[in-house]
Design goal:
Bound molecules: zinc ion
Protein name: Fatty acid hydroxylase domain-containing protein
Number of strands: 2
Structural class: mainly alpha
Shape: globular
Keywords: Membrane, Transmembrane, Transmembrane helix
Subcellular location: Membrane
Helix content: 55-70%
Family: Belongs to the sterol desaturase family.
GO molecular function: iron ion binding; oxidoreductase activity
Order of helices and strands: HHHHHHHHHHHHHEE
């Protein structure tokens, strides 16, 4: 066993480890004190005789290492990479499915939420005005970002342990993918399992006053949801609702780590979208999911707290158990929309 076993392939290590080791060892020498008693040339000599500055040397070395990495990559390819059966994925041979399953959802979260964060104000598509966002939300963006990062740290640790325990061989590139039909079935099963877990735990956190006050109310500090706040939860809630929910879905569906990459990334994008606060034309989630941004917005309103607990995929449990709140999407005179409870 080597320390990178199960994380990155030997080919990737063979390509990049020499480069990392170069900079570590050379960096060690660079950081030493002058040590004039041990030099083969004086420092003055170094200064006078060398006709190229350090910055150019660094650039030159990096260029050489780029070429070197490309050749090493091609060489390993030519020597017959052992690709696993089934459809190739773009991370094939670079990082393991387990690492992708752990980190891709985190990267996807920040990419998708970051995209929403960088949009212009879009006042004509907002579910709440910008002023409302400012007045009603009781936590600054910086705290939200910190909270999300903390949750993702815990999530990555649990995912890592989970994949370690369930990985059949502990080796990269040996688990065989089932057929596409089986994978789609597994994803549907995982969606139902996740919905079921989240509905009951989420609803219980609203019923139990202690849990609501000390745990779940943190998520509801964002009365006006925005994308980056999608996973702004108390760390215990993040663990119980999202992370354990994800683990159970993964285990019951029987999906491989490779299928889990797709499923977890999809779940994350859906959750971010549900909190984006915008009703944009052409949003596919709004077209295909009844449980969408407006649906979840109702739950974030003070008068909607007892309804629309279902998340992240389907409204089934709300409808079966009488917590479904129909709403009307009304155009605001000042621009944008409002999801208004039909009972009002
Ligand atoms: Zn809630
Ligand atoms: Zn929410």
């Amino acid at each position: 066993m080597v320390f990178w076993e199960g994380y990155v392939s030997d080919e990737v290590m063979g390509t990049f480890a020499p480069i990392v080791v170069y900079w570590l060892y050379a960096g060690f020498f660079q950081l030493l004190p002058p040590l004039d008693n041990y030099r083969l040339h004086t420092r003055k000599e170094e200064h006078v005789k060398n006709s190229v500055p350090l910055s150019s040397v660094i650039k030159g070395v990096l260029l050489q290492q780029l070429v070197q990495a490309l050749v090493a990559h091609l060489l390993f390819l030519g020597l017959g990479f052992s690709y696993r059966e089934g459809v190739m994925v773009f991370w094939e041979g670079y990082v393991s499915d387990e690492v992708m399953g752990t980190f891709a959802p985190i990267v996807v979260y920040w990419l998708y939420a970051g995209f929403f964060q960088l949009l212009p104000p879009l006042d004509n598509y907002r579910l709440h005005t910008r002023k409302e966002e400012h007045v009603k939300n009781s936590v600054p963006l910086s705290s939200v970002i910190k909270g999300v990062l903390l949750q993702q740290l815990v999530q990555a640790l649990v995912a890592h342990l989970l994949f370690l325990v369930t990985s059949e061989t502990g080796l990269v590139g040996t688990e065989i993918q089932p057929s596409l039909v089986v994978q789609i079935f597994q994803i549907i099963v995982a969606m139902f399992v996740m919905d079921t877990w989240q509905y009951f735990v989420h609803r219980y956190m609203h019923i139990n006053k202690f849990l609501y006050r000390h745990i779940h109310s943190q998520h509801h500090k964002l009365v006006v949801p925005y994308a980056i706040g999608a996973l702004y939860n108390h760390p215990l809630e993040g663990l119980l609702l999202d992370t354990v929910g994800g683990a159970i879905s993964f285990l019951i569906s029987g999906m491989t780590a490779r299928t889990a990459v797709i499923f977890f990334c999809f779940a994350v994008v859906k959750t971010v979208d549900d909190h984006c606060g915008l009703w944009l034309p052409g949003n596919l989630f709004h077209m295909f999911f009844q449980n969408n941004t407006a649906y979840h917005d109702i739950h974030h309103q003070l008068h909607g707290l007892k309804y629309n607990f279902s998340q992240p995929f389907f409204p089934i449990w709300d409808k079966l158990l009488g917590t479904y709140m129909p709403y009307d999407l009304i155009k605001r005179p000042e621009g944008g929309f409002e999801a208004r409870l039909s009972k009002d």
